[in-house]
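Sat 14:20. Reprocessing the chain from the morning session after the first attempt stalled halfway. Input below, unchanged.
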Amino acid sequence: MINVGIIGSTGYAGAEIVRLLLGHPEVKLRWLGSRSYIDKRYSEVFGNMFEIADDPCKDDNIEAMVNECDVIFTATPQGFCSTLINEDVLSKVKIIDLSADFRIKDVSIYEQWYKLEHKSPEFIKEAVYGLCEINREDIKKARLLANPGCYTTCSILTLYPLVKEGIIDPQSIIIDAKSGTSGAGRGAKVPNLYCEVNESMKAYGVTTHRHTPEIEEQLGYACGEDIKLIFTPHLAPMNRGILVTAYANLAKSVDYDAVKAAYDKYYKNEQFVRVLEKDVCPETRWVECSNYVDVNFKIDERTNRIVAMGALDNLVKGAAGQAVQNMNLMFGFKENTAINMPPVFP
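Finished this time. Tokens:
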């Protein structure tokens, strides 16, 4: 049994961590942190937790938390976790950070894209990028875990076999992605109001979205070269979900069977990555409220390109579920504990 603390437990990702861990047989929720709701019962903030999680919310006092917890999830805005990390903290507790503070290995790139000064750059090199299907063995040994972003998880897992096996030209990648509104967080923002989002779609962060360097870095590791790609996100009028449609030039002549074999090479034994049957396109509704990622591809012989597609739930595999999956690996639990549930429909 391990003791768990969550900083930011009343945001969307934090609340999803709570929901998942309430079903974890090896976890005791010791600290539900929230600056906005200190001393308020958790079930008052989220009515679905009535008589399930009635403990009061606490502050984010990291000094007190490290003496009560074995692992702390930081579901906080960019720049906050880096102010908490020091050797004393990491000597006492494992940290799973859901922000971008430790995802990008080049601190200058992080500061350029996020417009923030990194407060603990000396720990960036140590931090393990928590994409379970690719970095599983390193995750098991980590004490500081950088949980990937939702767009990045979907984009990387969709394209990884193609890049790793040299099937595509990595410099030709164009990623078109859609996200549900929960991806923007729970804070009140006019662009995310119902009347602003309903019955509409829009591109945003065009050429400037902060997940771009994260995707470039991780796919660059896969192919062994620095790459530049185009990533364009869109806001879709739905609560949950990420849908990625990526395009790239083929680097060699391949048929369906050869590409399918590449996907199977990396994902055949991965529970949470499902390579769909031929000609079946991923849909967000078939992964909702689950830790699954659905991927597939289509070869366009006419243009000598490939279209790769992926779908996941941005709050589960794109955030909380992947964080719990990482925690399970870090503490030697069965990897699918508390996240082994089928998608919800309708």
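The mean pLDDT is 96.
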